[in-house]
Amino acid sequence: MELAKLSLTELRRLQSKVETEIRRRSDTTRRDLLKKMQKMAADQGMSLSDLLPSAAVAEEKSAPAKRKSKAAGKKTGPVPVKYRHPENPAIGWSGRGRKPQWVVDWLAQNKPLVELEVSAGK
């Protein structure tokens, strides 16, 4: 393949394919090596985290099925509503995550978010 004859679009497409393949092979190699090291440690009656403190993190990454969510150890309940819809008080938003469209529209009208707060008496 002669790179000089390829168009810029073709070169970018090729670059993307090469980067994807490099990532795929790196990930596969990393997982394979980790499995081999875990087996070697297990053959000696140990775990990788017994040998290397940072290996506990690597072991979690290699087993996505066993991976816990960030909140797995926390007991959290529903988050209280912090903001209410100006026309329909049955609709609320906790202030976390993506803003609902009615909040986006409110802010687009240059109205302060403070006016929608539950404590603002609405």
From TrEMBL:
It is found in: Cytoplasm, Nucleoid. SUPFAM superfamilies: H-NS histone-like proteins (SSF81273). The keyword DNA-binding applies. Keywords: Cytoplasm, DNA-binding. Residues 64-73 have a biased composition (Basic residues). The keyword DNA-binding applies. Pfam families: Histone_HNS. Residues 73-118 form the DNA-binding protein H-NS-like C-terminal domain. Transmembrane segments: none annotated. Belongs to the histone-like protein H-NS family. This is H-NS histone family protein. It comes from Aromatoleum diolicum. The lineage of its organism: Bacteria, Pseudomonadati, Pseudomonadota, Betaproteobacteria, Rhodocyclales.
